Amino acid sequence: MAGFDDLASERSKAQFDVEEMKVIWAGSRHTLEVSDRISRLVANDPVFRKDTRTMLSRKDLFKNTLRKAAHAWKRIIELRLSEEEAAELRFYVDEPAFMDLHWGMFIPTIKGQGTEEQQQKWLPLAYKMKIIGCYAQTELGHGSNVQGLETTATFDPQTDEFIIHSPTLTSSKWWPGGLGKVSTHAVVYGRLIIDSKDYGVNGFIVQLRSLDDHLPLPGITIGDIGMKFGSGAYNTMDNGVLRFDHVRIPRDQMLMRVSQVTREGKLVQSNVPWQLVYGTMVYVRQKIVSDASCALSRAVCIATRYSAVRRQFGLQSNGIETQVIDYKTQQSRLFPLLASAYAFRFVGEWLKWLYMDVNQRLQASDFSTLPEAHACTAGLKSLTTSATADGIEECRKLCGGHGYLCSSGLPELFAVYIPACTYEGDNIVLLLQVARFLIKTVSQLGSGKEPVGTTVYMGRVEQLMQCHCAVQKAEDWLKPSVILEAFEARSMRMSVASAQNLAKFDNQEEGFLELSADLVQAAVAHCQLIVVSKFIEKLQQDIPGKGVKGQLEALCNIYALFILHKHLGDFLSTGCITPKQASLANAQLRSLYSQVRPNAIALVDAFNYTDHYLSSVLGRYDGNVYPKLYEEAWKDPLNDSVVPDGYQEYIQPILKQQLRNARL
Ligand SMILES: CCCCCCCCCC/C=C\CCCCC/C=C/C(=O)SCCNC(=O)CCNC(=O)[C@H](O)C(C)(C)COP(=O)(O)OP(=O)(O)OC[C@H]1O[C@@H](n2cnc3c(N)ncnc32)[C@H](O)[C@@H]1OP(=O)(O)O
Ligand SMILES: Cc1cc2nc3c(=O)[nH]c(=O)nc-3n(C[C@H](O)[C@H](O)[C@H](O)COP(=O)(O)OP(=O)(O)OC[C@H]3O[C@@H](n4cnc5c(N)ncnc54)[C@H](O)[C@@H]3O)c2cc1C
């Protein structure tokens, strides 16, 4: 049987220790053990089946999600799972649901923006799921522009309460996940008004529904905002609409870590920067970067396995056609995505560390690294989600016609993933934040304030503005120092050029708007440098296992040279490399593809995904694609009857020419 033999033979060709690569991918032996155990637990539980998801009506789909969420919670309690194991279980259940927002945003917001007392009051309730919360920031009229939110929270000194109100239609909360049908509580972002004075946006804990009968509390109008892109996909989530009509909450339900309102109605600022009100977004953006490597690797795993099973043209002497993975065009589209999945994994790991480091500093009242953390999370969220969304679609095309079938798993993965380019900050809006940070850094060069963190390279501005790439032969592109210098010089020169162009404007804000398309490109260049440099740093660690390091080096070089090839215009126009060096990079890339080719299947096996998680007939571990595709087709409800419903009303009259006769 084609698929079985092909994948078995591919696996036997691997030149590295797959089990050790699994550890590298997972992050540690411990994480691998947990994710392996929990993914199998989910895969073997019939309640977590997901093969009918794309065929259910919205109501049935949603109820099924509720059933799975309740079952997941039951299993978490029964098995006494740790926080880490519970998070893995929710991940492998693989269905966007209110739980994501409760655990992923509501709880972190209370932890990050609540005082000690507020945490003590609310967190135990939330941890035990006695209340279910969501994150209600975006409104019908404003999402990106958080300072433009219109919901008001007016302090009433008579009663020691805030009055939460939606003064306009556009102030309706719109989009929050989990809000539409499930959440009992929300962190609501609104304008703090004291004595008619507007103190800007803050977070408030508001109860939305009765804990007895789930009905909305007085003054609250609430519902789901309707069907979203694709079948199944994100429609398991109840993204909601919410309006307040003078709803009163006690004063102590304003999240008061950043600023406090006293009983007398005085606003007291604590020593933490006001930007901490935006802290949950930084936390989630960091998570989204790790999630990007999961979504991309999932699509790549499907496309790689299928490319080894699928054969087209080129009869060989043994009468067998060529595996499509052997076509150079297939490799040049697929292997950069494989390399990107690994690159995003490692930059995600680093970003997690950076976030923890910033958090520890914040506890010790050191706020110095917050701007860098904001820029890195915003930029990398944008870079990785855009590349992943495009990458999933490319994987669909790599699978030819069968990739368009829901049973390939790719259409739903694409539909569920693409909003990541929008939620937690539109990707362009976020890159503009990075650009502001870069322009600020460039403007401070020479002022005595040394660039820090990921902008340290900018301290070598003179060298980077003048350096010439030393590549003379294709293999020179394999040297990490050569790659790093080219990426640093490109980023430096693009930022400096943007800053110089900006300086020509009398009004900096106007200049920023006028040059924003170029500024976005400079931000992308900086973020790509971060990804490349973190991959290179990873390779400097001790990497055990036969051949593992060699494979990762090849992937790192593929990622870097692919980006160089894709953005050749930047590298050439800034004079970082010559056209001859560009063509040597291309030759090296081709040679790297040949190096990865025999290891491709093993490199995707190292993700350690179960067939349940992949939910793809094309990506099956055993490669048994054709019989399963055939089998899946017959499961479609349209095939329940041989003659379709509607035959007599709509097909028969055409065939019998009754319709034409009626018109004549
Ligand atoms: C097949 C089935 C598969 C199923 C898979 C299921 C898997 C599920 C896995 C899901 C994974 C993740 C789940 C995600 C769920 C997502 C739910 C979505 C939630 C949301 O979207 S919540 C809403 C998010 N909203 C936004 O992000 C809004 C974006 N806008 C902003 O962030 C800001 O308004 C702004 C930054 C764009 C601008 O703000 P503004 O106040 O105008 O500020 P500026 O004037 O520009 O800046 C002022 C200074 O503040 C600094 N700053 C800005 N932001 C921050 C920050 N966050 N932290 C620190 N500092 C910040 C800025 O740099 C300026 O500083 P300066 O004065 O220059 O020094
Ligand atoms: C599936 C999904 C789940 C979500 N979940 C939540 C949730 O749980 N809680 C919550 O509060 N919100 C949630 N959101 C809302 C989400 O955070 C916002 O949609 C997002 O921040 C983008 O804001 P917007 O919709 O206002 O886009 P807009 O800002 O209106 O963007 C429209 C266009 O304008 C451009 N644009 C906007 N501003 C600028 C600028 N300054 N310069 C240049 N171009 C600009 C953008 O690039 C984009 O092309 C969710 C959204 C989705 C799609």
Automatic annotation (TrEMBL):
UniProt record similarity statement: Belongs to the acyl-CoA oxidase family.
Superkingdom, taxonomy of origin: Eukaryota
Keyword annotations of the record: FAD, Fatty acid metabolism, Flavoprotein, Lipid metabolism, Oxidoreductase, Peroxisome
Location of this chain's protein in the cell: Peroxisome
Cofactor(s) demanded: FAD
Domain Acyl-CoA oxidase C-alpha1 residue range list: 278-439
Domain Acyl-coenzyme A oxidase N-terminal: 17-132
PANTHER family with a match to the protein in the record: ELECTRON TRANSPORT OXIDOREDUCTASE, PEROXISOMAL ACYL-COENZYME A OXIDASE 1
Every Acyl-CoA oxidase C-terminal domain range: 480-656
BP terms from Gene Ontology: fatty acid beta-oxidation using acyl-CoA oxidase; lipid homeostasis; long-chain fatty acid metabolic process
Gene Ontology MF term list: acyl-CoA oxidase activity; FAD binding; fatty acid binding
Protein's recorded name: Acyl-coenzyme A oxidase
Primary localization: other
Source organism of this protein record: Carya illinoinensis
GO annotations of cellular component type: peroxisome
